[in-house]
UniProtKB/TrEMBL annotation:
The keyword Nucleus applies. Its main location: nucleus. The gene is FBXO25. Substrate-recognition component of the SCF (SKP1-CUL1-F-box protein)-type E3 ubiquitin ligase complex. May play a role in accumulation of expanded polyglutamine (polyQ) protein huntingtin (HTT). This is F-box only protein 25. PANTHER family: F-BOX ONLY PROTEIN 25, LD30288P. It comes from Canis lupus dingo. Pathway: Protein modification; protein ubiquitination. SUPFAM superfamilies: F-box domain (SSF81383).
Amino acid sequence: MPFLGQDWRSPGWSWIKTEDGWKRCESWSRDLDRENNPCNVSHSIILNSDDEEIFSNEEQKYTSKKRKKDHFRNDTNTQCFYREKWIYVHKESTRERHGYCTLGEAFNRLDFSSAIQDIRRFTYVVKLLQLIAKSQLTSLSGVAQKNYFNILDKIVQKVLDDHQNPRLIKDLLQDLSSTLCILIRGVGKSVLVGNINIWICRLETILRWQQQLQNLQVTKQVNDGLTLSDLPLHMLNNILYRFSDGWDIVTLGQVTPTLSVLSEDRQLWKRLCQYHFAEQQFCRHLILSEKGHVEWKLMYFALQKHYPPREQYGDTLHFCRHCSILFWKDCRLALLFKDSGHPCTAADPDSCFMPVSPQHFIDLFKF
């Protein structure tokens, strides 16, 4: 059965009214205009039944292919998500609402594209994308999967530009490439949305991103002012104690010899183990030196393999238990205008809010 669009005369074509009647016109793309016309003069070609015979079959095929390529290029760069600060999470149909909210719908509607520009929310979004890549990628709809890769593209370009948090993105891309390799090889072909060639292109894009991050070199900015090496030892030690990730401490210790000595402090790694793991956990995996001292640094990385570390984020999504609404809470607006971030009907809204971790976000949409 042929497809009939809104314009029954010829779906996809534009019509203009002239003295001789209605005629069909085709607007050529701007890219094609630049190639054919160096003056970049925009024009349109009016086609009627007599003019169509002028074009040969080969030219018509070229025009059709060019139009399809332009449409595909524009379509891939288009992001099909909303910019909403909150959504209602409903898991069943009611008299007021039909259907239910899925993980893909929440991913499309919540404003993750702007969240990655906020340094407080960047780590949260990256961790959420990593969890989706590990287990929930095939549960997303086609539009949600497209938005997933669009947001991932923005994250990679941001890291390449500002040189911040490259290790987080490397881990994310590694998990995503492993998942796609398993799916493309045949385990999950039946659950992949779209042509298999699209996924192969996405995998090639991920491999290209990994190569770009591998070749990333952080340039040292020359500054005549105060540098990190000029700070006193107690301030440098205080900076190290602010880190919650052991890999960040190891990386910072490679900057100067002084920081290398401070990063090997046993008390620093002991507090890090106590922060992330319970006492019963690290008591089961004690690593002692030849002198009988506890090797806290080795214990930290050994415990990471057995237990998940404690997650810490500058800002997260919040869930209102009273309204069943998932939302981004803007702390600045909350202080200035007493805005909770969503239309809450509770008498004491703050008592109903609870932060949502990335894993909890995914669990909200498991039925």
